[in-house]
């Protein structure tokens, strides 16, 4: 892999960007971190807003192009390293369900948990992107109950996305700590990639806090 082929991950510790970093570790993907100190507001400076006008992480740079949006990043990276076995091929019968549950995260789960966290009144069911919170979460619970992963016995990049997300949202009490969610998240958080990134994040976050102090 040439220098131009290496992936740059625009990153800040203990944010949703951790999921993308964990995925890169799982894929064995050569990458570099471009670390932003969000406590110092670096994500709102012009240099980064030229990368992502929303001022959010993660974003990745690869082959001269930028990819933002966590769902797009997960699909892109897993497809880029098919030999890691974390993505069904285009002609695989499980490709559709795989894409369904990755898209479900961004289109339904995130809007629902943000409304719940902010204690905002959701839109009427007919206008809501996720119907209602209980229905949204119930569909996910039903799928995960088939286990051990979203697609049964096969772990994919979708499980990295969801395992990290459920771990965080249960930690903050936005998602109830039901057995099916807790067991599922544990399968991801017990993996070495998650443990390595989490430990590195603790040190990086402390450095950022000290720099702002």
TrEMBL record:
PANTHER family: GLUTATHIONE S-TRANSFERASE FAMILY PROTEIN, GLUTATHIONE S-TRANSFERASE-RELATED. It comes from Bradyrhizobium ontarionense. CDD domains: GST_C_8, GST_N_GTT1_like. This is Glutathione S-transferase family protein. Residues 4-85 form the GST N-terminal domain. PROSITE patterns: GST_NTER. InterPro entries: Glutathione-S-Trfase_C_sf, Glutathione_S-Trfase, Glutathione_S-Trfase_N, Thioredoxin-like_sf. It holds the Pfam family GST_N.
């Amino acid at each position: 892999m040439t220098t131009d082929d290496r992936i740059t991950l625009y990153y800040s510790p203990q944010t949703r960007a951790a999921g993308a970093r964990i995925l890169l570790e799982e894929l064995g993907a050569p990458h570099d971190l471009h670390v932003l100190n969000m406590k110092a507001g670096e994500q709102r400076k012009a240099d980064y807003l030229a990368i992502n006008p929303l001022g959010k992480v993660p974003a990745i740079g690869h082959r001269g192009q930028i990819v933002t949006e966590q769902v797009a990043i997960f699909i892109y990276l897993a497809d880029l390293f098919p030999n890691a076995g974390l993505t069904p091929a285009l002609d695989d019968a499980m490709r559709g369900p795989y894409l369904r549950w990755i898209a479900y995260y961004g289109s339904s789960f995130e809007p629902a948990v943000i409304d719940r966290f902010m204690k905002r009144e959701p839109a009427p069911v007919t206008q809501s992107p996720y119907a209602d919170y209980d229905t949204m979460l119930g569909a996910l619970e039903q799928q995960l109950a088939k286990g051990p992963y979203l697609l049964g016995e096969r772990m994919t990049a979708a499980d990295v996305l969801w395992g990290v997300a459920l771990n965080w949202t249960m930690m903050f009490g936005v998602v109830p700590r039901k057995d099916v969610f807790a067991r599922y998240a544990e399968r991801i958080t017990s993996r070495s990639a998650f443990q390595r990134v989490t430990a590195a994040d603790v040190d990086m976050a402390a450095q950022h806090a000290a720099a702002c102090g």
